Amino acid sequence: MKKMTGILSVLLASACLFAGGCSHSPKTTAEKTSASSSDELKILTIGTADSGGTMYPVGKALAQVISDSDSNIKVNISASNGSYFNVRSLGKEEIDLGLVSGDVAFAAVNGKGEFEGNPQENLRVIAAVYSSLSNWIAPSSLGISDVHDIKGKRIGIGPEDSTTESSAKIVMETLGISEENSRFKNCGLGSGTEEIVNGTLDAIHGFAGIPIQGLGDLADKIPCTVLRYTDQELRSILRENSFFCRDVIPAGTYKGQEEDIPTFGIKCLLCVNASMDDDLVYELTKILAEHTESLSGMHAALSSITRNGFMYEDLPIVLHPGAERYYRENGLLTD
Question: Are 118 and 111 in contact (CB under 8 A)?
Fold first, then answer.
């Protein structure tokens, strides 16, 4: 009987081995990374946004610098609808890295807005990488100069569930512009700028690092005006949305723009799931911190990353422990 019991035990153990383990589910990328040897190639995916905005080229720059700096890491690009989509994908561990606007990250962790009843408590940040700014542009032929002038017109507010859309809606509510008195359309910058050129839209909003490629391409095709907020409008927007801050679109950002344009913005974060291996996050943070000058030369929006403290100070959500360890070990963070 004892002999038979022993044979059964061996058979059961063998069955578990051939099945890939008795109780293990398929490993996520982060789990595979944690379990892999230091010289094994780690293939990561970074979620960005549509190719007409800033997240895509910024994500491309980050991927290139990381991949070029460590032969054991390869980063692929994934275009998406932007911050909200990237948060959800990180939560499901469908991507490894994601660019997320600071307001969306704050709402996600705290279960606010779109995430009410479904807080994304495992969302963590490696670093802030650039600032997204509110940009409104319209054909100069319309003869308008201020954002409030778009009331009653056909307005491209960004892809559905994107930060561009959510920030546009905040502006619309503050300025008394609604779907009752105007026409809103969800569209990416690529399709939206085509509609401006074709005359089926009157104005379009971009919320990204400047210059926004799609808006720059539009200004190169037809004479355009970058629309202004009044000082009172900016005060109202900032009073109700503390995660925003004042900023400026410098003169010359877009063709034909001869003056600085006051606006508001927010930091864009490189985020991960809390489950990502600490040592891997430490290495990613180290690479970014040591290549800020290279990054700033790859896209104008990334110039912010060179400012002291920009990467790790005044963040709306907590750092991943691996990132925090790097900043502390290098004297950048103190208690």
Answer: yes
Distance of CA 96 to the CA centre of its chain: 13
pLDDT tens readout for residues 83-120 = 999 999 999 999 999 999 998 999 999 999 889 999 99
CB of 147 closer than 8 Å to CB of 233: yes
Is 202 in contact with 154 (CB distance < 8 Å)?
yes
Query: Are the beta carbons of 55 and 48 closer than 8 angstroms?
Result: yes
5-61 pLDDT, tens digit each: 443 343 333 433 333 333 333 344 444 444 344 568 999 999 998 877 789 999 999
Q: What is the pLDDT of residues 180-222, one digit of tens each?
A: 999 999 999 999 999 999 999 999 999 988 889 899 999 999 9
